[in-house]
Design brief:
By secondary structure, the protein is of the alpha+beta class. Helix content is 25%, strand content 26%. The protein contains 7 helices and 18 strands. The termini are far apart.
């Protein structure tokens, strides 16, 4: 029988189970995952605010099968807030995270990875079936994401160089990019922007990818085909679509060893020689030392307007 306990977090009661279960071959347990997400909550929750969360769950650990989960599962506690989104497959009721208990509940489901779109529910139009993702009433993105996906043969130094070149290009357009590791092998740039239609952000991202590939053909490629990526960095623009999502900063990744999507300073990016592998406990120490390095990506009234696509 699975061991279950009942606990209280900020006045909310929830049940937890199998806290000693190893979710990673390295031995990181479900209890440790719950503890990490609760302890990181002060910096994570402001970034998750108002964003529907797609979860990647590993019920038997990262060495076994995983699945993406969008709809709120059966048994979702009443205290967890949800947001309905209209999709081609019908209405999807996404969970959101507004408090520590929400994160503890998600971790207890072995929802190791947390992915979100570039828009918030407060910048979306609600129709009869939920938030509208397409057409004139599509959500307004509050961030632009540039996902730098290294192809075979690309070194960490190459990825760092690519991130700096992409960020410099954006800076020339008045856009300040902030870098994080994906928690796996790539680097991702996020740019806070004044709310803009998601399709406009997507079109700009496509144009940026093509511009980088033209200007630096020995480093970047803007083609999705995997056989075109050898020795190049694919500038992935698709995550800017309203229906797509990106692994969130401070999320754990479902790898052999627990590794967190880590906000980085540009000095750290310039000095990279190996993939960033930040253990959850090391991430908590980073936050204690540096604070929230991702805070500058939060939308503000001063966020810049998105330029027209590059030609």
């Amino acid at each position: 029988m699975s061991e279950r306990i009942t606990t209280e977090i900020d006045g909310l009661t929830l049940g937890l189970s199998n806290l000693d279960k190893q979710l990673f071959p390295s031995g990181f347990t479900k209890g440790e995952l719950i503890s990490y997400y609760v302890e990181i909550s002060d910096v994570l929750l402001p970034h998750l605010k108002d964003r529907p969360i797609t979860r990647v769950r590993y019920p038997d650990g990262t060495g076994e099968e995983s699945f993406y989960e969008k709809n709120a599962p059966n048994g979702t506690p009443e205290f967890v807030q949800t947001v309905d989104v209209a999709t081609s497959a019908g209405t999807v009721s996404y969970v959101t995270a507004t408090q520590r208990a929400d994160l503890a509940w998600l971790a207890n489901l072995a929802a190791i990875e947390l992915h979100t779109p570039q828009w918030r529910a407060s910048e979306a139009t609600v129709g009869p079936d939920g938030i509208i993702l397409e057409g004139d009433e599509e959500p307004r993105a509050t961030s632009l994401v540039v996902d730098l996906d290294p192809g075979p043969g690309i070194t960490t130094e190459d990825s760092a160089k690519g991130a700096i070149i992409a960020a410099t290009t954006l800076a020339e357009l008045g856009l300040e990019a902030h870098c994080k590791s994906s928690g796996n092998k790539g680097l991702q740039l996020t740019v806070p922007i004044a709310p803009a239609p998601a399709s406009k952000a997507y079109d700009f991202a496509v144009s940026l990818a093509k511009h980088l590939a033209r200007a630096h053909p020995k480093l970047f490629v803007a083609t999705m085909a995997k056989d075109a990526r050898a020795g190049l960095i694919f500038v992935d623009f698709a995550q800017n679509l309203a229906a797509r999502n990106t692994v969130h900063a401070y999320s754990v990744r479902g790898l052999e060893q627990p590794s967190v999507a880590t906000p980085l300073t540009w000095d750290e990016v310039a000095a990279l020689t190996s993939p960033v592998r930040t253990h959850p406990s090391a991430m908590l120490e980073r936050v204690q030392e540096h604070g929230d390095l991702w805070a500058a990506t939060l939308p503000t009234e001063g966020s810049p307007q998105l330029p027209d696509p590059l030609t």
